[in-house]
Amino acid sequence: MKFFVDTADVSEIRELSDTGLLDGVTTNPSLIMKSGRPILEVTKEICDIVDGPVSAEVTAVEFNEMMREADILSELAENVCIKVPLTMDGLKACKALSSSGRKVNVTLCFSANQALLAAKAGATFISPFIGRLDDTGIDGMELISEIRTIYDNYDFDTEILAASIRTTNHVKQAALIGADVVTVPPAVLKSLAKHPLTDKGLEAFLADWAKTGQKIG
Ligand code: E4P
Which homologous superfamily does the CATH classification assign to the domain defined by 2-212? Predict the structure, then answer.
């Protein structure tokens, strides 16, 4: 399973990239707003930090304008992945961009049929939004499961990128179902390593070690 971080905060990305655990980054207009930085500048900087795909989202809603923005974003770096919304214009842009060899992430997916269309349009990634579905009282994980079945039925290459992840349990469930990628906020990613028994065990080991008076090396 690949791990992407869902942020445009360069210091967080740098810190996580240094662990060697990061496979890519996803951004969106809200995350760019949160960063307080110009989209082209911050996206370029992120692309220089990580080798994997960096999703940068078009903000146009009409096909021709989406393509114009996609061209500008594509010029930033080789690892830019163009993010388009799951609308008819977005799917048309996905088909055109993927046919020209570009990586495309189709975002704002809330149904299995939408995911089916994105795969037909040649999407590199489909982004089902788990947390936002949970917020409406619908089980977001059920959607991941449906998409997994449909993609496997037809051997689609489109990767399932579980998005809108809010908890460590979301990550575990997505992995159990077989999502190809999770994109996770930095805090959730870091908390995956946490367990109270790990902390307690380490504390006891260090206390006993101190009693030995030894040093390694
Ligand atoms: C995915 O690419 C989106 O940027 C993100 O996961 C949305 O998450 P949210 O619902 O927490 O805003």
Answer: Aldolase class I (3.20.20.70)
